Amino acid sequence: MVSYWTHGLFVIDQAGNYHRGKLLPFYFLILFAYILYLSIKAGYLSKKAKNYLYQKEYKAIARFSFLPFITALIQIIVDHLLIFNLGLTYSIFIVYNYFQQNLISLDPLTKINNREQLDIYLTTKMKENHQKKDLYLFLLDIDQFKKINDELGHVVGDQIILKTADILKQIAHLHNCFISRYGGDEFIIVCERDKNEKIMPVFNDLQRLFQQSHEGLPDFSVSIGYAKYDESLNYIPKFIEKADHYMYLNKNVKK
């Protein structure tokens, strides 16, 4: 049995001084092996995840796990350097900051990205080189939403907004898209596609999901418009305006 009696882990001499045992480094390596495994696995899953939100969560887990392992390893190698607690504290701060950013960046009602996060995401994507990928923006608007609020009440209106957000979450999961609430009853989806990959499956899935019956809710529909990014759409309002134009064409067809 490995214990302080065998001096394997540590020993305290007659003067009360602490000395490391030869097996102490192996003890710590075994103890923190799972933390390293968790960090590597989370980093791998962040690369493989198709959902934008899942990518962010896995990255936060990977960062939290990696730093405590590194500081523990340094503490093992360098005698009397107590650095592990510093690494653990900083990792906790990273995770706390991540969740605080989530609270700021999410729409309070639907818990999907808000308009500020949309601006940040689109700015990044529009600056990237899109020679290999196409960038699409979908704009959705709930039809006759003011009438729904006036006749059925704002509680029903909120339920329809929540249902719309749930459908967009399904689309985000199916097609690896960024989703956000743009304002009121308007929502935006941003998708990247390979040059030879068609965008119509996203549009078709949107129509299919909204045409299904929604238990406990009155029938409602949405109008959808989308635009493909090009150099003429050199700032965000122009990009959204083009999708908005096609959305209102879709809305007018229903009248």
Average pLDDT metric: 83
Individual helix count: 8
The arrangement of helices and strands along the chain is EEHHHHEHHEEHEH
Question: What does the largest sheet look like?
Answer: 4 strands, antiparallel
**Over the alpha carbons, how many angstroms does the gyration radius reach?**
26 Å
Strand percentage, roughly? 5-15%
Q: Give the quaternary arrangement of the chains.
A: single chain
Strand order across the largest sheet:
4-5-3-6
Number of strands: 6
Question: How far apart are the first and last residues' alpha carbons, in Å?
Answer: 82 Å
Q: Which class of secondary structure composition applies to the elements?
A: alpha+beta
Q: Which shape, going by the Cα principal axes?
A: elongated
Low-pLDDT runs of 5+ residues are none
The helicity comes to 55-70%
Question: What is the strand and helix layout of this fold?
Answer:
Elements: E1 10-12, E2 18-20, H1 24-48, H2 52-77, H3 84-105, H4 115-127, E3 133-142, H5 145-152, H6 154-175, E4 178-183, E5 186-194, H7 200-211, E6 222-228, H8 236-254
Antiparallel strand pairs: 1-2, 3-5, 3-6, 4-5
Helix pairs in contact: 1-2, 2-3, 5-6, 6-7
